[in-house]
Amino acid sequence: MKKNTIVKLLDVIEKQTYIEKQIIIINDCSKDNSLELIKSYNFLSENLILSHDKNLGKGACIKTAKNHINGDIVIIQDADLEYDPQDYKKLVKPILANLSKIVYGSRVLGKKRYHNAKKFYFRYAYFF
C-alpha cells in the first residue's frame, strides 16, 4: 500500500455518493504504516479490511477480495491513485444503463501518445 496516498484515496472514494458501496481493502503485506492509517479512518461506507501475511501481488488481492463481495458491480483500485476514483461514475454508467456487462478503464487512453488506441476503444467499448 502507499501510506502517502491511502487516506486521500479513501476520502475521494467516500465522496462518491451516487451509489451504495462496499469498500474491501487488501493489505498485501505493506511494510509502512498504511494498515494503521486505514484502521483509524472514519469510514462512511460498509468496509472490510483483510491482510496477507506475505506480498502476493494484485492477482492474489483480487482473489482474496472476491470471496467477500456483496454487490453487483466491482471496481478494482490500487492505493497509489493511478486511477482516479472520480471516474467511477463514468465506468459504471454503461453497466447501469444495461449497455454493457463489463467496462475497462485505462490510464493511457486520451493521452496524445495513444490517440489511435482511444478511437479503437470507444468504437468497441460497448460491444458485449
Report the portion of residues in β strands: 5-15%
Topology, number of strands: 2
Order of helices and strands: HEHEHHH
- Rg calculated over all Cα atoms: 16 Å
Task: Name the average pLDDT.
Answer: 83
Count of individual helical segments: 5
* General shape: globular
The largest sheet has its strands arranged as 1-2
Q: Any low-confidence stretches, pLDDT <50, length ≥5? A: 118-128
Tell me the helix content: 25-40%
Give the structural class.
Answer: alpha+beta
Distance between the termini: 33 Å
Q: What is the oligomer described by this structure?
A: single chain
**Largest beta-sheet details:** 2 strands, parallel
Structure, explained:
The longest helix has 10 residues, at 115-124. Helix content is 34%, strand content 9%. Helix 2 links the parallel strand 1 (22-27) and strand 2. The protein is globular. It has a two-stranded parallel ribbon with strand order 1-2. It has a domain at 6-81. It is an alpha+beta fold and 128 residues long. The protein has 5 helices and 2 strands; from the N terminus they run αβαβααα.
